[in-house]
Specification:
The chain is mainly α. Helices cover 58% and strands 0% of the residues. It has one domain. The longest helix has 11 residues.
Length: 127
Amino acid sequence: MAIIGRSTVTDSPESRAASGELTGDEYMDLVRSKDVAARVAAAGRADAPLGALIAFTQDAKSEVRVAVASNPGIGRTTTVIARLADDKSIDVVRALIDNPAVPHEAIEKIAADGPKAARSYAEARLS
């Protein structure tokens, strides 16, 4: 028996977040998505627009913020790096410190006056 009138959306922003090309509007749809995995995938994409990355830095889920902190495209924006450097989650700050795209100066700033739990981690990365 076939079900009429029921379709599945296979080309939604959520389904394309990990592998498909997304438009700026689709990124902003993902910022508001309830699908945490889709937000993580979008936040980690190097082609994510700056507005979406800034929005993802304010996500309630730390795994989304970790994805932004690990994103190879964030080296181009000091705004995103500065927000993540002060994040309440040590996992986010450590992901930022581990990201090779983050400028050396940002790591030095975390080592000097970042969250206490991240300072020694940043110092170790600098040596």
